[in-house]
Amino acid sequence: MAAITRRRNFCIIAHIDHGKSTLADRLIEKVHLIDERDFKNQILDTMDIERERGITIKSQAVTIPYTASNGTEYELNFVDTPGHVDFTYEVSRAISSCEGALLLVDATQGVQAQTLSNMYLALEHNLEIVPVINKIDMIAADIPATKRQIEKDLGLDAERALLVSARQGTGVDELFEAIVTRIPPPEGSAEAPLKALIFDCHYDPYRGVVVHLRVFDGCIKKGLTVRFMSNGAEYEVESLGIFKIVLSETAELAAGSVGYIIAGIKTVSDVRVGDTVTSAAAPCNTALPGFREVKPVVFSSIYPVDSNDYEELAVSLEKLKLNDASLIYEKDSSAALGFGFRCGFLGLLHLEVVEERLEREAGQTIIFTAPSVKYKIKLQSGEEIFVDNPAAYPEANRILSAEEPYIRASIITPSQFLGNIITLCVEKRGVQTNMTYLDEKRVELVYDMPLAEVLFDFYDKLKSISRGYASFDYDITGYKPTEIVKLDILLNGKIVDALSQLVFKDNAYERARIVCGRLRDEIPRHQFKIPVQGSIGSTVIARETINALRKDVLAKCYGGDVTRKRKLLEKQKEGKKRMKMVGDVELPQSAFLAVLKTKDE
After folding, report:
1. Of 368, 387, 405, which residue is a domain's last?
2. Mutual orientation of helices 418-427 and 458-465 as an angle, nearest 10°?
3. What one-character DSSP code corresponds to residue 150?
4. CATH code at 331?
5. CB contact at 8 A, 447 and 385
6. Which of 72, 367, 483, 505 has its Cβ near the most Cβ atoms within 10 Å?
7. Are 404 and 336 within one domain?
8. Whole-angstrom Cα distance, residue 292 to residue 274?
Protein backbone atom coordinates (compact mmCIF):
# COMPACT_ATOMS: atom_id res chain seq x y z
CA MET A 1 0.00 0.00 0.00
CA ALA A 2 1.26 3.50 -0.82
CA ALA A 3 2.05 6.00 1.93
CA ILE A 4 -0.71 8.53 2.62
CA THR A 5 1.33 11.34 0.94
CA ARG A 6 1.35 9.30 -2.30
CA ARG A 7 -2.42 8.77 -2.45
CA ARG A 8 -4.84 10.94 -4.38
CA ASN A 9 -8.64 10.64 -4.21
CA PHE A 10 -10.50 12.41 -7.02
CA CYS A 11 -13.71 12.30 -9.05
CA ILE A 12 -14.80 13.59 -12.46
CA ILE A 13 -17.82 15.90 -12.44
CA ALA A 14 -19.58 17.41 -15.46
CA HIS A 15 -22.87 18.00 -17.23
CA ILE A 16 -24.48 14.97 -18.87
CA ASP A 17 -22.73 13.78 -22.07
CA HIS A 18 -19.56 15.88 -21.65
CA GLY A 19 -17.33 12.79 -21.83
CA LYS A 20 -16.75 11.62 -18.22
CA SER A 21 -16.97 7.88 -18.95
CA THR A 22 -14.80 8.19 -22.09
CA LEU A 23 -12.10 10.03 -20.13
CA ALA A 24 -12.31 7.34 -17.43
CA ASP A 25 -11.69 4.73 -20.16
CA ARG A 26 -8.53 6.58 -21.30
CA LEU A 27 -7.16 6.86 -17.73
CA ILE A 28 -7.65 3.11 -17.17
CA GLU A 29 -6.25 2.28 -20.61
CA LYS A 30 -3.14 4.43 -20.05
CA VAL A 31 -1.99 2.44 -16.99
CA HIS A 32 -2.90 -0.95 -18.56
CA LEU A 33 -5.18 -1.83 -15.65
CA ILE A 34 -7.04 -4.30 -17.84
CA ASP A 35 -6.00 -6.51 -20.78
CA GLU A 36 -6.67 -5.04 -24.22
CA ARG A 37 -8.79 -8.04 -25.20
CA ASP A 38 -11.04 -7.52 -22.13
CA PHE A 39 -11.35 -3.78 -22.66
CA LYS A 40 -14.66 -2.28 -23.80
CA ASN A 41 -15.98 1.27 -23.97
CA GLN A 42 -17.68 2.66 -20.84
CA ILE A 43 -15.68 0.12 -18.80
CA LEU A 44 -16.96 1.55 -15.48
CA ASP A 45 -20.61 1.45 -16.62
CA THR A 46 -21.43 -2.08 -15.49
CA MET A 47 -25.19 -2.10 -16.06
CA ASP A 48 -26.74 -2.93 -19.46
CA ILE A 49 -29.09 0.02 -19.12
CA GLU A 50 -26.09 2.41 -18.77
CA ARG A 51 -24.55 1.10 -21.98
CA GLU A 52 -27.84 1.19 -23.92
CA ARG A 53 -28.66 4.78 -22.94
CA GLY A 54 -25.04 6.00 -22.96
CA ILE A 55 -25.41 7.47 -19.46
CA THR A 56 -23.80 6.82 -16.09
CA ILE A 57 -26.29 5.97 -13.33
CA LYS A 58 -24.07 4.53 -10.60
CA SER A 59 -20.81 6.15 -9.50
CA GLN A 60 -18.07 3.50 -9.74
CA ALA A 61 -14.72 3.52 -7.92
CA VAL A 62 -11.39 2.23 -9.27
CA THR A 63 -7.80 2.35 -7.92
CA ILE A 64 -5.21 3.31 -10.56
CA PRO A 65 -1.44 2.80 -9.95
CA TYR A 66 0.55 5.64 -11.59
CA THR A 67 4.29 6.40 -11.84
CA ALA A 68 4.89 10.15 -12.16
CA SER A 69 7.50 11.73 -14.47
CA ASN A 70 9.92 12.05 -11.49
CA GLY A 71 9.68 8.28 -10.82
CA THR A 72 7.41 8.51 -7.72
CA GLU A 73 4.70 5.84 -7.55
CA TYR A 74 1.18 7.03 -6.67
CA GLU A 75 -2.11 5.31 -5.84
CA LEU A 76 -4.96 7.20 -7.50
CA ASN A 77 -8.46 6.42 -6.22
CA PHE A 78 -10.90 7.62 -8.84
CA VAL A 79 -14.71 7.79 -8.82
CA ASP A 80 -16.73 8.20 -12.07
CA THR A 81 -19.99 10.10 -11.46
CA PRO A 82 -23.34 10.54 -13.30
CA GLY A 83 -24.23 13.81 -15.03
CA HIS A 84 -28.05 13.72 -15.18
CA VAL A 85 -29.93 16.03 -12.80
CA ASP A 86 -31.83 13.03 -11.32
CA PHE A 87 -28.58 11.51 -10.00
CA THR A 88 -27.10 14.51 -8.14
CA TYR A 89 -27.28 12.42 -4.95
CA GLU A 90 -24.83 9.90 -6.48
CA VAL A 91 -22.48 12.82 -7.25
CA SER A 92 -22.68 14.13 -3.66
CA ARG A 93 -21.72 10.66 -2.36
CA ALA A 94 -18.69 10.46 -4.67
CA ILE A 95 -17.57 13.99 -3.75
CA SER A 96 -17.68 13.24 0.00
CA SER A 97 -14.98 10.56 -0.40
CA CYS A 98 -12.53 12.72 -2.46
CA GLU A 99 -10.09 15.62 -1.99
CA GLY A 100 -10.21 16.86 -5.57
CA ALA A 101 -12.40 16.97 -8.68
CA LEU A 102 -11.74 17.19 -12.41
CA LEU A 103 -14.42 19.59 -13.71
CA LEU A 104 -15.01 18.56 -17.32
CA VAL A 105 -16.33 21.14 -19.82
CA ASP A 106 -17.29 20.21 -23.40
CA ALA A 107 -15.43 22.48 -25.87
CA THR A 108 -18.39 22.31 -28.29
CA GLN A 109 -21.13 23.19 -25.75
CA GLY A 110 -19.36 25.18 -23.03
CA VAL A 111 -20.49 25.60 -19.43
CA GLN A 112 -23.96 24.07 -18.85
CA ALA A 113 -26.49 24.03 -15.99
CA GLN A 114 -25.21 20.84 -14.30
CA THR A 115 -21.58 22.02 -14.67
CA LEU A 116 -22.44 24.91 -12.36
CA SER A 117 -24.46 22.94 -9.81
CA ASN A 118 -21.82 20.15 -9.59
CA MET A 119 -19.06 22.73 -9.11
CA TYR A 120 -20.98 24.33 -6.20
CA LEU A 121 -21.44 20.84 -4.72
CA ALA A 122 -17.66 20.29 -4.89
CA LEU A 123 -16.95 23.71 -3.36
CA GLU A 124 -19.27 22.92 -0.43
CA HIS A 125 -16.97 19.95 0.36
CA ASN A 126 -13.79 22.12 -0.05
CA LEU A 127 -12.52 20.07 -3.00
CA GLU A 128 -9.62 21.25 -5.15
CA ILE A 129 -11.13 21.84 -8.61
CA VAL A 130 -9.07 21.21 -11.76
CA PRO A 131 -10.87 22.56 -14.89
CA VAL A 132 -10.50 20.30 -17.96
CA ILE A 133 -11.67 21.23 -21.47
CA ASN A 134 -12.69 18.05 -23.34
CA LYS A 135 -13.51 17.25 -27.01
CA ILE A 136 -10.81 19.61 -28.38
CA ASP A 137 -10.59 17.36 -31.49
CA MET A 138 -14.15 18.15 -32.60
CA ILE A 139 -14.73 20.47 -35.59
CA ALA A 140 -17.23 22.55 -33.56
CA ALA A 141 -14.79 22.99 -30.61
CA ASP A 142 -14.39 26.62 -29.58
CA ILE A 143 -11.56 26.63 -27.00
CA PRO A 144 -11.20 30.45 -26.53
CA ALA A 145 -14.97 30.83 -25.92
CA THR A 146 -14.95 27.87 -23.47
CA LYS A 147 -12.03 29.46 -21.57
CA ARG A 148 -13.94 32.75 -21.34
CA GLN A 149 -16.97 30.87 -19.92
CA ILE A 150 -14.78 29.08 -17.33
CA GLU A 151 -13.45 32.50 -16.21
CA LYS A 152 -16.80 34.32 -16.28
CA ASP A 153 -19.37 31.66 -15.29
CA LEU A 154 -17.29 29.46 -12.96
CA GLY A 155 -14.77 32.00 -11.63
CA LEU A 156 -11.85 29.58 -12.22
CA ASP A 157 -8.46 30.34 -13.75
CA ALA A 158 -8.89 29.34 -17.41
CA GLU A 159 -5.14 29.55 -18.08
CA ARG A 160 -4.66 26.54 -15.79
CA ALA A 161 -7.39 24.55 -17.59
CA LEU A 162 -6.10 21.36 -19.22
CA LEU A 163 -6.92 20.60 -22.87
CA VAL A 164 -7.81 16.95 -23.58
CA SER A 165 -9.54 14.78 -26.12
CA ALA A 166 -10.96 11.79 -24.22
CA ARG A 167 -11.81 10.06 -27.49
CA GLN A 168 -8.28 10.27 -28.95
CA GLY A 169 -6.36 10.23 -25.64
CA THR A 170 -4.73 13.64 -26.25
CA GLY A 171 -3.53 15.41 -23.08
CA VAL A 172 -4.03 12.39 -20.75
CA ASP A 173 -0.34 12.41 -19.63
CA GLU A 174 -0.58 16.09 -18.60
CA LEU A 175 -3.85 15.27 -16.82
CA PHE A 176 -2.17 12.53 -14.73
CA GLU A 177 0.63 14.96 -13.74
CA ALA A 178 -1.96 17.62 -12.78
CA ILE A 179 -3.80 15.09 -10.56
CA VAL A 180 -0.66 14.28 -8.52
CA THR A 181 0.61 17.88 -8.32
CA ARG A 182 -2.60 19.93 -7.93
CA ILE A 183 -4.88 17.62 -5.89
CA PRO A 184 -3.79 17.47 -2.21
CA PRO A 185 -3.07 14.13 -0.49
CA PRO A 186 -5.68 12.93 2.05
CA GLU A 187 -5.37 14.00 5.67
CA GLY A 188 -5.66 11.48 8.51
CA SER A 189 -3.58 9.19 10.66
CA ALA A 190 -3.22 5.39 10.52
CA GLU A 191 -2.64 5.40 14.32
CA ALA A 192 -5.93 7.18 15.18
CA PRO A 193 -9.13 5.19 15.99
CA LEU A 194 -10.76 3.74 12.87
CA LYS A 195 -13.16 6.09 11.08
CA ALA A 196 -14.47 5.14 7.61
CA LEU A 197 -17.43 6.39 5.55
CA ILE A 198 -19.72 3.99 3.63
CA PHE A 199 -20.32 5.62 0.23
CA ASP A 200 -21.87 2.63 -1.59
CA CYS A 201 -22.70 -1.10 -1.29
CA HIS A 202 -23.74 -4.00 -3.46
CA TYR A 203 -25.10 -7.47 -2.74
CA ASP A 204 -23.21 -10.63 -3.64
CA PRO A 205 -25.43 -13.77 -3.45
CA TYR A 206 -22.47 -15.85 -2.18
CA ARG A 207 -20.69 -13.44 0.16
CA GLY A 208 -23.45 -11.13 1.39
CA VAL A 209 -23.19 -7.32 1.42
CA VAL A 210 -19.98 -5.86 -0.07
CA VAL A 211 -19.42 -2.49 1.66
CA HIS A 212 -17.61 0.27 -0.34
CA LEU A 213 -15.89 2.72 1.99
CA ARG A 214 -13.37 5.55 2.27
CA VAL A 215 -11.04 5.28 5.29
CA PHE A 216 -10.40 8.68 6.91
CA ASP A 217 -8.48 7.53 10.03
CA GLY A 218 -7.08 4.26 11.35
CA CYS A 219 -6.57 0.98 9.54
CA ILE A 220 -8.72 -2.07 8.65
CA LYS A 221 -7.21 -5.58 8.59
CA LYS A 222 -8.64 -9.06 8.17
CA GLY A 223 -10.12 -10.41 11.43
CA LEU A 224 -10.92 -6.93 12.85
CA THR A 225 -14.39 -6.60 14.39
CA VAL A 226 -16.02 -3.46 12.99
CA ARG A 227 -19.09 -1.59 14.25
CA PHE A 228 -21.66 0.39 12.21
CA MET A 229 -22.28 3.53 14.28
CA SER A 230 -25.91 4.15 13.20
CA ASN A 231 -27.25 0.88 14.67
CA GLY A 232 -24.36 -0.69 16.63
CA ALA A 233 -24.25 -3.85 14.46
CA GLU A 234 -20.88 -5.63 14.70
CA TYR A 235 -19.20 -7.93 12.16
CA GLU A 236 -15.77 -9.53 11.72
CA VAL A 237 -13.95 -8.57 8.52
CA GLU A 238 -13.43 -11.69 6.37
CA SER A 239 -11.94 -10.04 3.30
CA LEU A 240 -10.93 -6.55 2.18
CA GLY A 241 -9.31 -4.90 -0.80
CA ILE A 242 -9.39 -2.23 -3.50
CA PHE A 243 -11.27 -1.81 -6.81
CA LYS A 244 -9.24 -2.65 -9.92
CA ILE A 245 -12.32 -3.01 -12.15
CA VAL A 246 -12.76 -6.34 -10.31
CA LEU A 247 -12.38 -6.70 -6.53
CA SER A 248 -8.66 -7.06 -5.72
CA GLU A 249 -7.83 -8.38 -2.22
CA THR A 250 -5.19 -6.57 -0.09
CA ALA A 251 -3.76 -7.04 3.42
CA GLU A 252 -5.09 -3.74 4.82
CA LEU A 253 -6.94 -0.48 4.10
CA ALA A 254 -5.13 2.42 5.76
CA ALA A 255 -6.10 6.10 6.25
CA GLY A 256 -6.79 7.79 2.90
CA SER A 257 -7.67 4.52 1.10
CA VAL A 258 -10.82 3.76 -0.89
CA GLY A 259 -11.81 0.08 -0.95
CA TYR A 260 -14.27 -2.58 0.16
CA ILE A 261 -14.83 -4.95 3.07
CA ILE A 262 -16.73 -8.26 3.16
CA ALA A 263 -17.87 -9.38 6.61
CA GLY A 264 -20.52 -12.04 5.92
CA ILE A 265 -23.32 -9.47 6.28
CA LYS A 266 -26.60 -11.21 5.40
CA THR A 267 -28.92 -8.72 7.14
CA VAL A 268 -29.17 -6.12 4.39
CA SER A 269 -30.84 -3.51 6.63
CA ASP A 270 -27.76 -3.37 8.93
CA VAL A 271 -25.81 -1.46 6.27
CA ARG A 272 -26.75 2.14 5.50
CA VAL A 273 -25.00 4.32 2.94
CA GLY A 274 -23.56 7.41 4.67
CA ASP A 275 -22.93 5.50 7.93
CA THR A 276 -19.57 5.51 9.77
CA VAL A 277 -17.61 2.29 10.30
CA THR A 278 -15.34 2.08 13.36
CA SER A 279 -13.54 -0.56 15.41
CA ALA A 280 -15.63 -2.40 18.05
CA ALA A 281 -12.60 -2.63 20.40
CA ALA A 282 -11.44 1.02 20.10
CA PRO A 283 -14.28 3.08 18.59
CA CYS A 284 -13.96 6.71 17.48
CA ASN A 285 -15.85 9.41 19.44
CA THR A 286 -17.94 11.02 16.71
CA ALA A 287 -19.46 9.77 13.46
CA LEU A 288 -18.61 11.37 10.12
CA PRO A 289 -21.27 13.77 8.79
CA GLY A 290 -22.35 11.37 5.99
CA PHE A 291 -24.47 12.85 3.19
CA ARG A 292 -27.31 15.33 3.06
CA GLU A 293 -30.63 13.57 3.50
CA VAL A 294 -32.17 12.68 0.13
CA LYS A 295 -35.64 14.09 -0.61
CA PRO A 296 -37.70 12.17 -3.19
CA VAL A 297 -39.78 14.36 -5.48
CA VAL A 298 -41.70 11.80 -7.58
CA PHE A 299 -43.93 9.13 -6.06
CA SER A 300 -45.34 6.01 -7.68
CA SER A 301 -46.61 2.62 -6.51
CA ILE A 302 -45.10 -0.70 -7.62
CA TYR A 303 -47.16 -3.89 -7.69
CA PRO A 304 -46.16 -7.41 -8.76
CA VAL A 305 -48.20 -8.68 -11.74
CA ASP A 306 -48.67 -11.95 -9.84
CA SER A 307 -49.68 -11.22 -6.20
CA ASN A 308 -47.75 -14.36 -5.11
CA ASP A 309 -44.50 -12.55 -5.99
CA TYR A 310 -45.00 -9.87 -3.29
CA GLU A 311 -42.38 -11.32 -0.87
CA GLU A 312 -39.89 -11.71 -3.69
CA LEU A 313 -40.44 -8.07 -4.71
CA ALA A 314 -39.84 -6.96 -1.09
CA VAL A 315 -36.45 -8.77 -1.02
CA SER A 316 -35.50 -7.35 -4.46
CA LEU A 317 -36.28 -3.78 -3.33
CA GLU A 318 -34.20 -4.21 -0.18
CA LYS A 319 -31.18 -5.38 -2.21
CA LEU A 320 -31.68 -2.59 -4.76
CA LYS A 321 -31.77 0.01 -1.97
CA LEU A 322 -28.28 -1.15 -0.89
CA ASN A 323 -26.96 -0.07 -4.27
CA ASP A 324 -29.29 2.93 -4.69
CA ALA A 325 -29.56 4.79 -1.38
CA SER A 326 -31.85 7.45 -2.89
CA LEU A 327 -34.72 4.93 -3.33
CA ILE A 328 -37.34 5.24 -0.57
CA TYR A 329 -40.30 2.88 -0.23
CA GLU A 330 -43.09 1.77 2.13
CA LYS A 331 -45.89 -0.80 1.97
CA ASP A 332 -49.03 0.02 -0.01
CA SER A 333 -52.17 -1.76 -1.21
CA SER A 334 -54.77 -1.34 -3.95
CA ALA A 335 -58.20 -2.87 -4.48
CA ALA A 336 -57.35 -3.47 -8.15
CA LEU A 337 -53.76 -4.66 -7.85
CA GLY A 338 -53.39 -6.10 -4.33
CA PHE A 339 -50.30 -5.52 -2.16
CA GLY A 340 -47.32 -3.47 -3.33
CA PHE A 341 -44.99 -0.61 -2.35
CA ARG A 342 -45.24 3.18 -2.51
CA CYS A 343 -41.84 4.44 -3.72
CA GLY A 344 -40.16 7.85 -3.77
CA PHE A 345 -37.81 8.74 -6.66
CA LEU A 346 -35.52 11.66 -7.50
CA GLY A 347 -37.10 12.13 -10.93
CA LEU A 348 -38.76 10.32 -13.82
CA LEU A 349 -35.46 8.95 -15.21
CA HIS A 350 -34.72 7.52 -11.76
CA LEU A 351 -38.16 5.83 -11.82
CA GLU A 352 -37.47 4.31 -15.27
CA VAL A 353 -34.04 3.06 -14.14
CA VAL A 354 -35.47 1.41 -10.99
CA GLU A 355 -38.18 -0.26 -13.09
CA GLU A 356 -35.63 -1.65 -15.56
CA ARG A 357 -33.25 -2.81 -12.81
CA LEU A 358 -36.04 -4.66 -11.01
CA GLU A 359 -37.06 -6.37 -14.24
CA ARG A 360 -33.53 -7.21 -15.46
CA GLU A 361 -31.47 -7.79 -12.31
CA ALA A 362 -34.18 -9.23 -10.06
CA GLY A 363 -36.36 -10.85 -12.76
CA GLN A 364 -39.51 -9.13 -11.44
CA THR A 365 -42.63 -8.50 -13.56
CA ILE A 366 -44.13 -5.32 -12.15
CA ILE A 367 -46.74 -2.61 -12.72
CA PHE A 368 -46.09 1.08 -11.95
CA THR A 369 -48.90 3.54 -11.26
CA ALA A 370 -48.88 7.10 -12.65
CA PRO A 371 -46.23 9.28 -10.93
CA SER A 372 -47.33 12.01 -8.51
CA VAL A 373 -45.71 14.72 -6.37
CA LYS A 374 -46.32 15.45 -2.67
CA TYR A 375 -49.10 18.01 -2.10
CA LYS A 376 -49.72 19.97 1.10
CA ILE A 377 -53.45 19.94 1.99
CA LYS A 378 -55.02 22.20 4.64
CA LEU A 379 -58.27 20.75 5.98
CA GLN A 380 -61.34 22.65 7.24
CA SER A 381 -60.43 21.45 10.75
CA GLY A 382 -57.14 23.41 10.53
CA GLU A 383 -55.01 20.26 10.24
CA GLU A 384 -52.24 20.12 7.59
CA ILE A 385 -51.47 16.86 5.79
CA PHE A 386 -49.12 15.80 2.97
CA VAL A 387 -50.60 13.65 0.20
CA ASP A 388 -48.64 11.92 -2.58
CA ASN A 389 -51.07 9.04 -3.17
CA PRO A 390 -54.48 9.71 -4.81
CA ALA A 391 -55.98 6.98 -2.56
CA ALA A 392 -55.24 9.16 0.50
CA TYR A 393 -56.73 12.35 -0.99
CA PRO A 394 -59.55 13.67 1.29
CA GLU A 395 -63.12 14.46 0.12
CA ALA A 396 -63.49 17.88 -1.54
CA ASN A 397 -65.80 19.23 1.21
CA ARG A 398 -63.06 18.63 3.86
CA ILE A 399 -60.39 20.66 2.03
CA LEU A 400 -59.79 24.33 2.80
CA SER A 401 -56.79 24.89 0.51
CA ALA A 402 -54.03 23.00 -1.32
CA GLU A 403 -50.39 23.74 -2.14
CA GLU A 404 -48.01 22.04 -4.57
CA PRO A 405 -44.17 21.93 -4.70
CA TYR A 406 -42.44 24.48 -6.93
CA ILE A 407 -38.97 24.41 -8.42
CA ARG A 408 -36.53 27.07 -9.59
CA ALA A 409 -35.59 25.84 -13.06
CA SER A 410 -32.35 27.07 -14.60
CA ILE A 411 -32.10 26.65 -18.39
CA ILE A 412 -28.99 27.56 -20.39
CA THR A 413 -29.69 27.68 -24.13
CA PRO A 414 -28.29 29.08 -27.39
CA SER A 415 -30.22 32.29 -28.11
CA GLN A 416 -31.78 31.01 -31.39
CA PHE A 417 -34.05 28.63 -29.42
CA LEU A 418 -35.14 31.25 -26.88
CA GLY A 419 -38.71 31.88 -28.21
CA ASN A 420 -39.75 28.22 -28.32
CA ILE A 421 -38.31 27.49 -24.86
CA ILE A 422 -40.18 30.47 -23.34
CA THR A 423 -43.41 29.17 -24.96
CA LEU A 424 -42.78 25.69 -23.49
CA CYS A 425 -42.18 27.12 -19.98
CA VAL A 426 -45.36 29.22 -20.15
CA GLU A 427 -47.34 26.12 -21.24
CA LYS A 428 -46.02 24.40 -18.12
CA ARG A 429 -47.32 27.23 -15.88
CA GLY A 430 -43.81 28.67 -15.47
CA VAL A 431 -43.20 32.27 -14.33
CA GLN A 432 -39.96 33.87 -15.54
CA THR A 433 -37.89 35.39 -12.72
CA ASN A 434 -34.65 36.12 -14.58
CA MET A 435 -33.06 36.16 -18.04
CA THR A 436 -29.32 36.74 -18.43
CA TYR A 437 -27.24 36.83 -21.61
CA LEU A 438 -24.08 34.92 -20.59
CA ASP A 439 -22.41 35.97 -23.87
CA GLU A 440 -23.51 36.88 -27.41
CA LYS A 441 -24.75 33.34 -28.10
CA ARG A 442 -26.00 31.88 -24.79
CA VAL A 443 -28.88 32.84 -22.51
CA GLU A 444 -29.69 31.68 -18.99
CA LEU A 445 -33.42 31.56 -18.17
CA VAL A 446 -34.69 31.15 -14.61
CA TYR A 447 -38.31 30.06 -14.09
CA ASP A 448 -40.49 29.28 -11.09
CA MET A 449 -42.72 26.38 -12.11
CA PRO A 450 -44.70 23.53 -10.51
CA LEU A 451 -42.74 20.30 -10.15
CA ALA A 452 -45.77 18.30 -11.36
CA GLU A 453 -45.48 19.99 -14.80
CA VAL A 454 -41.83 18.94 -15.21
CA LEU A 455 -42.46 15.29 -14.29
CA PHE A 456 -43.57 13.84 -17.58
CA ASP A 457 -42.27 15.19 -20.86
CA PHE A 458 -40.70 18.59 -20.09
CA TYR A 459 -37.07 17.39 -20.40
CA ASP A 460 -37.79 15.51 -23.66
CA LYS A 461 -39.59 18.52 -25.18
CA LEU A 462 -36.78 20.87 -24.11
CA LYS A 463 -34.14 18.67 -25.80
CA SER A 464 -36.33 18.36 -28.91
CA ILE A 465 -36.94 22.12 -29.23
CA SER A 466 -33.26 23.00 -28.71
CA ARG A 467 -31.85 20.10 -30.80
CA GLY A 468 -30.13 18.85 -27.64
CA TYR A 469 -28.23 22.08 -26.90
CA ALA A 470 -30.29 23.43 -23.97
CA SER A 471 -29.36 22.25 -20.47
CA PHE A 472 -31.66 22.03 -17.49
CA ASP A 473 -31.14 21.99 -13.73
CA TYR A 474 -33.57 22.59 -10.87
CA ASP A 475 -33.87 23.10 -7.11
CA ILE A 476 -37.00 22.59 -5.00
CA THR A 477 -37.96 26.01 -3.61
CA GLY A 478 -41.08 25.30 -1.51
CA TYR A 479 -44.89 25.17 -1.76
CA LYS A 480 -47.32 27.58 -3.44
CA PRO A 481 -51.17 27.61 -3.50
CA THR A 482 -52.81 25.63 -6.29
CA GLU A 483 -56.13 24.09 -7.32
CA ILE A 484 -55.89 20.33 -7.61
CA VAL A 485 -58.57 17.71 -8.14
CA LYS A 486 -58.63 13.94 -7.95
CA LEU A 487 -59.23 12.44 -11.39
CA ASP A 488 -60.85 9.00 -11.13
CA ILE A 489 -60.92 6.54 -14.03
CA LEU A 490 -64.00 4.29 -14.21
CA LEU A 491 -64.15 1.04 -16.18
CA ASN A 492 -67.64 -0.33 -16.65
CA GLY A 493 -68.86 2.06 -13.94
CA LYS A 494 -66.27 0.92 -11.35
CA ILE A 495 -63.41 3.14 -10.11
CA VAL A 496 -59.95 1.60 -10.71
CA ASP A 497 -57.98 3.09 -7.79
CA ALA A 498 -54.59 2.29 -9.37
CA LEU A 499 -55.41 4.61 -12.32
CA SER A 500 -56.51 7.60 -10.18
CA GLN A 501 -54.40 10.76 -10.40
CA LEU A 502 -54.06 14.15 -8.72
CA VAL A 503 -54.03 16.85 -11.41
CA PHE A 504 -54.20 20.65 -11.75
CA LYS A 505 -57.86 21.62 -12.16
CA ASP A 506 -57.45 23.43 -15.52
CA ASN A 507 -55.59 20.43 -17.00
CA ALA A 508 -58.08 17.81 -15.74
CA TYR A 509 -60.28 17.65 -18.89
CA GLU A 510 -57.34 17.29 -21.29
CA ARG A 511 -55.68 14.70 -19.05
CA ALA A 512 -58.92 12.68 -18.67
CA ARG A 513 -59.52 12.73 -22.42
CA ILE A 514 -56.00 11.45 -23.19
CA VAL A 515 -56.10 8.70 -20.52
CA CYS A 516 -59.54 7.47 -21.67
CA GLY A 517 -58.38 7.44 -25.29
CA ARG A 518 -55.26 5.45 -24.42
CA LEU A 519 -57.20 2.92 -22.33
CA ARG A 520 -59.69 2.44 -25.19
CA ASP A 521 -56.78 1.46 -27.45
CA GLU A 522 -55.07 -0.80 -24.88
CA ILE A 523 -57.94 -2.74 -23.27
CA PRO A 524 -59.02 -5.74 -25.39
CA ARG A 525 -62.66 -5.90 -26.56
CA HIS A 526 -64.99 -8.04 -24.45
CA GLN A 527 -68.37 -9.67 -25.14
CA PHE A 528 -70.07 -6.49 -23.88
CA LYS A 529 -69.65 -2.72 -24.32
CA ILE A 530 -67.25 -1.11 -21.82
CA PRO A 531 -67.56 2.59 -21.02
CA VAL A 532 -64.20 4.19 -20.02
CA GLN A 533 -64.89 7.38 -18.07
CA GLY A 534 -62.85 10.09 -16.42
CA SER A 535 -64.61 11.77 -13.49
CA ILE A 536 -64.04 14.38 -10.81
CA GLY A 537 -66.21 13.34 -7.88
CA SER A 538 -69.56 12.36 -9.42
CA THR A 539 -69.10 14.52 -12.56
CA VAL A 540 -67.99 12.61 -15.67
CA ILE A 541 -65.74 14.89 -17.75
CA ALA A 542 -64.55 12.47 -20.47
CA ARG A 543 -65.76 9.21 -21.97
CA GLU A 544 -64.68 6.62 -24.52
CA THR A 545 -66.45 3.34 -25.37
CA ILE A 546 -64.85 -0.02 -26.12
CA ASN A 547 -67.29 -1.72 -28.47
CA ALA A 548 -68.39 -5.29 -27.85
CA LEU A 549 -67.29 -8.35 -29.77
CA ARG A 550 -70.50 -9.41 -31.49
CA LYS A 551 -71.47 -12.81 -32.75
CA ASP A 552 -73.48 -12.72 -35.99
CA VAL A 553 -76.71 -14.30 -34.68
CA LEU A 554 -78.49 -13.60 -38.01
CA ALA A 555 -76.11 -15.83 -39.99
CA LYS A 556 -78.54 -18.78 -39.87
CA CYS A 557 -81.56 -16.60 -40.85
CA TYR A 558 -81.50 -16.83 -44.65
CA GLY A 559 -85.15 -15.85 -45.09
CA GLY A 560 -88.53 -15.66 -43.43
CA ASP A 561 -90.30 -12.92 -41.52
CA VAL A 562 -88.37 -9.90 -40.09
CA THR A 563 -89.78 -10.65 -36.61
CA ARG A 564 -87.57 -13.78 -36.46
CA LYS A 565 -84.47 -11.61 -36.90
CA ARG A 566 -85.73 -9.06 -34.36
CA LYS A 567 -86.40 -11.81 -31.84
CA LEU A 568 -82.83 -13.15 -32.16
CA LEU A 569 -81.34 -9.64 -31.82
CA GLU A 570 -83.48 -8.92 -28.71
CA LYS A 571 -82.35 -12.21 -27.16
CA GLN A 572 -78.70 -11.30 -27.81
CA LYS A 573 -79.26 -7.84 -26.30
CA GLU A 574 -80.67 -9.35 -23.10
CA GLY A 575 -77.70 -11.68 -22.86
CA LYS A 576 -75.23 -8.80 -23.30
CA LYS A 577 -76.99 -6.80 -20.57
CA ARG A 578 -76.82 -9.74 -18.16
CA MET A 579 -73.14 -10.34 -19.03
CA LYS A 580 -72.33 -6.67 -18.40
CA MET A 581 -73.81 -6.90 -14.91
CA VAL A 582 -71.60 -9.81 -13.90
CA GLY A 583 -68.66 -9.39 -16.32
CA ASP A 584 -65.22 -8.26 -15.13
CA VAL A 585 -63.00 -6.17 -17.37
CA GLU A 586 -59.59 -7.64 -18.12
CA LEU A 587 -56.96 -4.88 -17.62
CA PRO A 588 -53.58 -5.61 -19.30
CA GLN A 589 -50.25 -4.31 -17.94
CA SER A 590 -49.82 -2.12 -21.04
CA ALA A 591 -52.89 -0.12 -19.94
CA PHE A 592 -51.04 1.09 -16.82
CA LEU A 593 -48.00 2.05 -18.90
CA ALA A 594 -50.25 3.92 -21.34
CA VAL A 595 -51.47 6.16 -18.50
CA LEU A 596 -47.86 7.31 -17.90
CA LYS A 597 -47.78 8.87 -21.36
CA THR A 598 -49.14 12.38 -21.54
CA LYS A 599 -49.84 12.96 -25.18
CA ASP A 600 -50.88 11.13 -28.32
CA GLU A 601 -47.78 9.91 -30.14
Report:
1. 368
2. 160
3. I
4. 3.30.70.870
5. no
6. 367
7. no
8. 9
